[in-house]
Amino acid sequence: MTAQITLVGNIATPPHFKTLPSGLTITTFRLASSQRRFDQSSGGWVDGDRSFFTVSAYRRLAEHVHRSLNKGDRVVLTGRVKVREWENDSGKGTAVEIDAEAIGPDLMWGTTVFQRDGASQGATPASSDTWAVPGGGDAVGGGSDAASRGSVASGEWPTVEPGAALTNDARELEGTPF
Predict the structure, then answer these.
(1) Strand, helix or coil at 166?
(2) Where are the beta strands (DSSP E) in 12-105?
């Protein structure tokens, strides 16, 4: 059984991207993570002990990490923990490795612009200035019954030009506090 872990920290080494002969892509980097705590005696925040982890991302995640993240970036990641004992000529120790399942920037410290990978969403929109409407159908002036709007189960998402007239269903929701 492998344990799940979520970490927040800074990328301590440049992410290293490689493709194995089998075609598997891997990006690895070291993550430095330390907890900050409030020191009542000094009245300020201090860094606690720092821990380092070797992080590995595979396949599409590896490609995205390589293209998106750099040394020094603050990230949040979740993955599976592997603890490994090691020994060499200079001594022995314990290595903690993380097989990443998800990685992203820590938005507490900055902003980002997300760009969806076209291959991961299946189909691309008809054009960049159209909106997808769940439920399908004639969203510009169609009726309010499900048959005239299409079926959600069909998996097709029709497009609506920005600024198009609202459907009867949408007009009923205007002004509704959420």
Answers:
(1) coil
(2) 16-19, 25-39, 44-58, 74-88, 91-105
Q: Is the CA virtual torsion 26, 29, 35, 36 positive or negative?
A: negative
DSSP-H helix ranges across 26-166: 59-68, 146-149
Query: Rounded to a whole number, what is the distance in angstroms from the first to the last CA of the chain?
Result: 42
| Phi, psi for residue 92 in degrees, rounded to 5 | -140, 165
Q: Hunting for tokens 């002036």 — which residue is that?
A: 141
pLDDT for 33-92, tens place per residue? 988 888 889 888 888 888 899 999 999 999 999 999 999 999 999 999 999 898 999 999
Q: What are phi and psi of 8, to 5 degrees?
A: -125, 130
E strand or H helix that includes residue 5: strand 3-11
Q: Could you tell me which residues come within 8 angstroms of residue 103 by beta carbon, excluding any fewer than 6 positions away?
A: 55, 57, 61, 65, 69, 75, 76, 77
Name the token pair of 86. 């090691």
